[in-house]
Amino acid sequence: LEPIMLPTRLPEPELFLPGTGEPSLKWGIVGPGWIAGEFAKAVGDHTAQTIHAVASRSLDRASRFAADHGIEHALGSVDELLARADIDVVYISTPQSEHLPIGLAAIAAGKHVLVEKPMALNAHDARTLADAARAAGVLLMEAMWSRYLPQASILRTLLADGVLGEIRSVMADHGQLIAPDPQHRLYRPELGGGALLDLGIYPVQLASMVLGAPATVTAVGGLTETGVDAYSTLVLEHGDGVQATLFSTITARTPMTASISGSEGTLIFDGAFYIPTSFRLIGPGHFDPTLRWSDETGLALFDGLSWEATALARFVGEGRTESPLHTLDETISILATIDDARAQLAG
Ligand SMILES: NC(=O)c1ccc[n+]([C@@H]2O[C@H](COP(=O)([O-])OP(=O)(O)OC[C@H]3O[C@@H](n4cnc5c(N)ncnc54)[C@H](OP(=O)(O)O)[C@@H]3O)[C@@H](O)[C@H]2O)c1
Predict the structure, then answer these.
(1) Ligand 1 center from residue 183 Cα (angstroms)
(2) Residue 336: phi, psi to the nearest 5?
(3) Which residues pair with 266 in a beta bridge?
(4) Most buried among 158, 257, 301, 343, by the most CB within 10 A?
């Protein structure tokens, strides 16, 4: 193999900038909890989209959320939101256990749907949603916002250009300390708790983006007292000496970094790899120069949620029914990897 020299500069990211021809859609939020608040702020501040209505199981909570975020309509049930003709797209930010029933109802009402990660509790349920959306001709997309960040665009270009050479390894971890509390949604099996579905899905989707679906999955880890996965290491075998090693936990905050290593170079994300961050690209030699990139769009932390909202609007404008950057089949495949790992951990 002729050695590939690392480029002297990095490609420019393709950005989902607002006001670049995408339709301005009217959104309805279902599940006005923590991430919904961050999403509403990001959309209000950094997109050409409008959050037009919010539905909660309690009209009181919906009204408070609507007042906080300048949303015109507060509704006390999902049905009321779905019955409105003036809603184009529904953002589902409930616990994962509710994604399937609410997603199916939104699709049946003819709405486009952005559903928080994980799209559903397992691959089977995600396929049910995908089939329903395809039959209805509406757009269905998992809110895997990492895929729409500027850094993801550069990574796609580097991979397409073969800059890292033959990829040999993906390593990534995502750990957050969630104090043990049987009432917290992440400790509750019936709400789809556990580290893998909530946090581990980020490392798994990164490995999938770089390497595709694995040939085999091996999971080693442990459960909480409530019976959900507390921590685990996944080794994904991709054949030909290629592995992904992925860690997730709700028992400690971890570095949350990721690296992608190939025969010609290594890309290392600094800090939390799944949110707007910086990375280094280094050659295989000990003294090779390092190229550095950092996100200078000004959209830090959860402002980065705005990219996925503009992306969705652009896809709708293009007449698409799924994201070309994170297809429904890939969403299902990622959940199949997690299903396999969770089954092994449950033993
Ligand atoms: N993209 C990200 O970075 C990110 C970050 C955190 C979470 N998430 C995802 O977003 C979703 C919500 O997470 P969150 O942390 O925002 O949760 P949260 O704060 O608990 O909010 C979820 C909301 O869903 C509603 N809900 C509907 N049915 C429910 C039920 N059976 N039990 C409990 N709540 C129910 C509740 O609002 P009402 O009671 O008012 O209806 C609740 O406020 C999860 O799927 C999670 O994986 C994504």
Answers:
(1) 13
(2) -65, -40
(3) 261, 282
(4) 158
Tell me the CB-side half-sphere exposure of residue 66, using CA atoms within 13 A: 20
Ligand 1 pocket member 287 (CB < 6 A)? no
pTM of the model: 0.97
Token pair of 58 as six digits: 């309690």
Catalytic residue among 26, 41, 111, 117: 117
Q: Is the CB of 23 under 6 A from ligand 1?
A: no
Query: Relative to the CA of 61, which ligand 1 atom is closest?
Result: 40
**pLDDT digits over 18-31, tens only?**
999 999 999 999 99
Name the residue of 57, 71, 94, 141 to mutate for ligand 1: max ligand atoms within 8 A of Cβ. 94
Task: Give distance in angstroms: CA of 276 to centre of ligand 1.
Answer: 22
Q: Is 116 in the pocket of ligand 1 (CB under 6 A)?
A: yes
Tokens in use for 282? Answer: 């280094």
Q: Is 117 a catalytic residue?
A: yes
Q: Which residue has the tokens 């909202």?
A: 309
Phi, psi (degrees; rounded to nearest 5) at 14? -85, 120
Give the single-character DSSP code of 197: I
The pLDDT tens digits for 269-287 are: 998 999 999 999 998 887 7
Integer CA distances (angstroms), 287 to 100, 123, 269, 283, 284, in order:
51, 44, 19, 8, 9
CA distance 275 to 152: 10
